[in-house]
Amino acid sequence: MSFPTEVPGSGYEIVVFENKFPSFRQAPPEPAVDGTDIMSVKPARGVCEVVLYTDRHHTTFADLDTSHITNLIEVWTDRYNELGALDYIDYVLIFENKGDAVGVTLHHPHGQIYAFPFIPPIPEKELESSSEYMKATGKCLLCDVLSFELDDRRRIVAENPGFVAVVPFYARYPYEIHVIPRCHKSALPDLDTGERQWLAKMLKTVTCGYDHLFGFSFPYMMIMHQAPTSQGDFGHYHFHIEFYPPYRTATKLKYLGGCESGGGTFINDTLPEETAEKLRAAVGRGFSAGALLPNSCAVVGKGERGGGAGGSG
Ligand SMILES: [Zn+2]
Ligand SMILES: [Zn+2]
Question: For burial by CB atoms within 10 Å, which of 127, 170, 218, 306 has the most?
């Protein structure tokens, strides 16, 4: 067994430490070159952390039990709060790269946290759209998207009282899944105890479902999109978790080509309605997301709309 030196031995549940090869540092060196009017430079001030999910080396996220995942969600929440409170941090990006196919070098179940001194472009674009939609309609964009998906049902992969997993209408990867809270929450600290448990069950369901899809441990990138921690009102933004698996069949990887990398436009040759159906079947062979119980503030589809359920709160 060869543990990389930064991994402690055993006898811990979840460990967080600073990345040994950080892209950002709390005390960064001066930029290597001087900036100019057209080429500006800044010190790479931020924080990069590694989160070891468990001390069991030969496991993956999908092997964690839901109470362990609930504790992990509390760790993520704590790191979001603590790093976000630093005055030079505008955005806390929590993510996991899993599997050789996405270039993982540390073979121990782990995720990462990048605390950015700016809002990265993909969340920034989502924030813009969310804010514009709120201004135009007075409603939350993702609450409405979720309501649309719950009405349509064809792209739903799994649901429980707290969360819905869906292959979004606008999926870029064939087996992309977004995990969306039914209640309007902007970031992890907004979740209550019950929602943290429902999220743990949903993440277990999705990761087990992925492993059952083609019968091997399924690589993915998992990215949390939360409200920024910079100054501003981000109450319009709806937290969610995106999974990007690189496989488009059991044996073929999706490579980003010229159209994706240079044109910024994803070509997806599968229908989300069809991949969602396969994922539903795979989820059915794995861990169950939990019984459907009533949840008073949950977003529901028009067809299932009864008294009292509202879009946002
Ligand atoms: Zn919402
Ligand atoms: Zn997103």
Answer: 218
